[in-house]
Amino acid sequence: MNELQKNYLLETAKWQKFLGVLMAIGTVIMFGLGIALMFFGNQLDLDEFGELANLGSVGGAIMGLVYLLGGLIYLFFTLYLLRSANNLKAWGRSDDEEALTKGLKNNKSYFKLNGILAIISLVLIALVIVGVVIAAIAAA
Question: Coil, helix or strand for 53?
Answer without folding.
Answer: helix
